[in-house]
Amino acid sequence: MRYLFDASSIVNLVKKNFVEPFIEGATVELAFYESINALWKEYVLLGHIKEKVAVELVEALEDIFNVIKVLSTRSMGKEVFEIASNERITIYDASYLCAAIRNKLTLVSDDEKLRGMSSKYVNTTTSQQLDKKLEKVKLLFNGFCHKLYGIDYFHWYPVMFTSLSKH
């Protein structure tokens, strides 16, 4: 594991259909419902997405949460409360930060306030920065696979990822 994803980064990566980072990552229990809530808000309250798209994205989240490592924060209550109180952030945001600290992970968040404050404790990045970084690696690896085996690895990768989540 290298990354701890918050709900904002999970939703943004899923909307781009960019699932590879989740294999090297983790999140906390509440992220599933926070992610679904963000999609519900975009559909019901803001009207930014159609119902069909929202449902498809929720299904994609279900697949991802069958693969990504989900860390329990139940034993971190006191630490989460202290971080939230000292930094004046929500308990939800503090749970992401606490899990990242405890597990020595880079916090991936598209919430500028959380990312800025968290950088005092852990390395941070955005989903967009991670996307760019992994895209470079992906291109190099794909070129390597094509040269050696004559295959386009990342053309088949999303199919493989989906089939893994079904088991």
Automatic annotation (TrEMBL):
<dbReference type="InterPro" id="IPR029060">
    <property type="entry name" value="PIN-like_dom_sf"/>
</dbReference>
<dbReference type="InterPro" id="IPR002716">
    <property type="entry name" value="PIN_dom"/>
</dbReference>
<protein>
    <submittedName>
        <fullName>DNA-binding protein</fullName>
    </submittedName>
</protein>
<dbReference type="InterPro" id="IPR051619">
    <property type="entry name" value="TypeII_TA_RNase_PINc/VapC"/>
</dbReference>
<dbReference type="GO" id="GO:0003677">
    <property type="term" value="F:DNA binding"/>
</dbReference>
<feature type="domain" description="PIN">
    <location>
        <begin position="22"/>
        <end position="115"/>
    </location>
</feature>
<dbReference type="InterPro" id="IPR044153">
    <property type="entry name" value="PIN_Pae0151-like"/>
</dbReference>
<dbReference type="Pfam" id="PF01850">
    <property type="entry name" value="PIN"/>
</dbReference>
<keyword id="KW-0238">DNA-binding</keyword>
<keyword id="KW-0460">Magnesium</keyword>
